[in-house]
Design brief:
Layout: H1 2-8, E1 20-22, H2 28-35, E2 40-42, H3 52-66, E3 71-73, H4 82-85, E4 92-96, H5 108-115, E5 119-126, E6 136-143, H6 150-173, E7 180-181
Parallel strand pairs: 1-2, 3-4, 6-7
Antiparallel strand pairs: 4-5, 5-6
Amino acid sequence: MVRLVEDMLSGDHPAEPVLVLANDENAGGLIKADDMDVSTAVVDHRPFLGDRAAFETALQATLNIVQPDIICLAGFMRVLTEGFVAPWEGRMLNIHPSLLPKYKGLHTHARALEAGDVEHGCTVHLVTPALDDGPVLGQARVPVIKGDTADQLAARVLEKEHQLYPAVLRRFAAGDTTPVYL
């Protein structure tokens, strides 16, 4: 997320960051965003365990304060319901560590290795009510190297995520939904 904010603050970006919102007060991006004079907020999900609707109501109330045009999810490991997603549909992006439609959900790097894939990567997609299922806005590929561990593969994918997400957001904010492939 920090790379997105840095890119948006570069001076020639069609989007302006208005808030970095996390569900964990220890998220590293909060300090970095604050250092860049970008507003931050935390809506901790733990007090809402068992009441997803209340958590999403608190998220929405926080977003209503700044009224963003686009929401960019990164490292937000909470499944959002249709009730939350629907008002933002077509304006909420997510980055996922696999070449969707492969490996929706968790443990994507281990699953790619277990399957014997020769390449892996990441995808930026529009968020829909179905998990990791929205239209693809961009993908970046990395080779799977013989002997890779899930952590080694994840590190290479993360490097690509830091390139792909800003490139996709820049185009998306300018109205271009043509997929980006790195």
